[in-house]
Please model this.
Amino acid sequence: MIKFFRKIRQKMLTENKFSKYLIYAIGEIILVVIGILIALYINNLNTEKQDSIALNGYLNNISENIKSDQINLKKITAFRDSSVIGSKYFMKMIEQESKEQYTTYFSKYFKFNPWLDESFQSNQSGFEALKNSGYLNKIQQTDLETELYKYYSLVQKIKDEEQSLNNFMEEMEYDMYKNNVVQKTKPIIRKLFRKIETEKDIAELHKILNYPAFVGSHSRNAGTSYMNELYEKLTVINHSLMNEIEKITKG
Model:
């Protein structure tokens, strides 16, 4: 093809048809430019396709993380509900000094005691990978970007709140172990379940349960219903975020 165009040029120059040659040369330049533009266009399409595939991959990973988060949210919500109910029961129990309530508390509610280091575990690997990839700029100023930052900002807030709560409970638990409070409780509880406790045991148990760290832990835990409000808010954002991801990955 190149040889063909070269022959035409040579023929025109030989015949001294300069004006026709000039028109031909301009046409040839235009064809070359069009060819370059087409090549660039195809290359851009391929690049955009590869970028779209890569971005969808990151978003799909985030989607899987969020599904996992939702399962963990249900678990921690159920725990907090039971733990708060147990602590409220405890606060009423120590006022009434009922032996039957002691048995109910330790058999039904103590397994949700406030000293358990429970917290919401969020998988942020997908979001971190997206931020480090450079593809985050592909969704700038979109509803998806807004929902992503809204979601993970709330995840961090929940983490901070839970850390503060658990730190407090660790201090209370340490105080009880340091002062031999927990160790004194165990033999009396065993007697309660075997129904061989004495009045002296009940009096001692009442004294132990009124220990400041014991009461302080339950008092603080009884007021942590706000944590479930945060979990519920995160669940709502969770659904909105999933919808925004699907718009891009399945659109």
About this structure: The CA atoms of residues 16 and 30 lie 23 Å apart. Residues 54-249 form one domain. The mean pLDDT is 86.
